[in-house]
Amino acid sequence: MFPGEAVTQPIITIRIVAVPPGEAPYWVREKWIGLELPVTRYPEARRFHGFGVLSQPRYWWMHWLAVLLGRAEIIEGYVVEASFAVDLLGRSNQQAAAWWRENAPLAVGPGRFFIFHTHACQVI
Question: Rounded CA gap, 46 and 43, in Å?
Fold first, then answer.
């Protein structure tokens, strides 16, 4: 999905069943457990080049350079629209959602996505 592209209807829904890995503090990541999130990009888990929400390259060209240099992590998971996911998180835990908005604003901006690792998800 590209900036400005509309979010489509969910293809599948996942439930977070384990603390997802990542750079957010553990207490923030554990608040994802139990949430059901719509996957709007691909109908099954896929492999992606990913970066941490705090260490991700700021610009698209830096992203691709980092991928070419082998600095990206290969993640198998489900793609979820980030701002929508944080909004859902805010319904159950406002402090965790606030952490995302304050500490990782680039990661939750328009047209941005989270990849939830397959081992932390259950398709429902």
Answer: 9
